Amino acid sequence: MYATLQLLHSYWAYLVFIILAVATINALYKFFGNKEFTAFDFRISLFTLIVSHIQLIIGIILFFAADYISIVKESGMGVVMKNADLRDKIIEHPTTMIIAIALITIGYSKHKKKLTSKPKFKMLAMFFTLAFILVIAKIPWQTWLA
Ligand code: HEM
Predict the structure, then answer these.
(1) Are 48 and 23 in contact (CB under 8 A)?
(2) How far is 112 from 120, CA to CA, in rounded Å?
(3) Distance between CA 17 and CA 86 in Å, rounded?
(4) In principle, which of 59, 65, 123, 127 could form an S-S bond with 110, CB 3.0–4.6 Å?
(5) Read out DSSP for 53-88?
(6) Among candidates 102, 107, 99, 98, which has minimal Cα distance to 128?
């Protein structure tokens, strides 16, 4: 059960990474290039929102399946914080990724409220770039690509 979830979370991360990269570069390019907002731009941002929310759900299930709560209860928070591996898996990775997905959600909902192309791309470019930086920073690259 845990291994399947881990595999799913690991493979779904490729989709999250690729779609977020494409949506971010697209928004930045069209913001600075003063392009018109089209149905493609709406679809790619919506797809980014959906794909990242699915990863959030898989991540939360994985977190509880790993029973990290028991580790915290048994060892105590001090031990967890002093162990780089545990701190990353229990605190840093989940927290940073939740913030990243919140930024994607805020960027998506703010762009929808804007009526013209430039402000729409501005919201997407700002929030998706910040989210992408956080995702890059907290993907466990060594274990993921090993
Ligand atoms: C944009 C969102 C996210 C991305 C791109 C992402 C990506 C990844 C990747 C690539 C791994 C390593 C998998 C491997 O070693 O093969 C991982 C591990 C993990 N993720 Fe996420 N994650 C995200 C969100 C979350 C969230 C929101 C949670 C929990 C609330 C979470 C919990 C975990 C846990 C517990 C592991 C460790 C699994 C293990 O090594 O046993 N992730 N994540």
Answers:
(1) yes
(2) 7
(3) 24
(4) 123
(5) HHHHHHHHHHHHHTTHHHHHHHH-HHHHHH-HHHHI
(6) 107
Task: Report the alpha-carbon distance of residue 21 to residue 142 in Å, rounded.
Answer: 20
Token pair, residue 102, equals 């919140």
- How is residue 25 written in tokens? 């570069």
Place of tokens 């959600």: 105
Q: pTM for the complete prediction?
A: 0.94
Give the residue, by CA position, lying nearest to ligand 1 atom 33.
59
Q: pLDDT, tens digit, for every residue of 7-60?
A: 999 999 999 999 999 999 999 999 999 999 999 999 999 999 999 999 999 999
Measured in angstroms, how far is the CA atom of residue 130 from the centroid of ligand 1? Answer: 18
Pocket of ligand 1 from Cβ distances under 6 Å: 6, 9-10, 13, 16, 52, 55-56, 59-60, 62-63, 66, 89, 93-94, 97-98, 100-101, 135, 139-140, 143-144
The whole-angstrom separation of Cα 87 and Cα 144 is 17
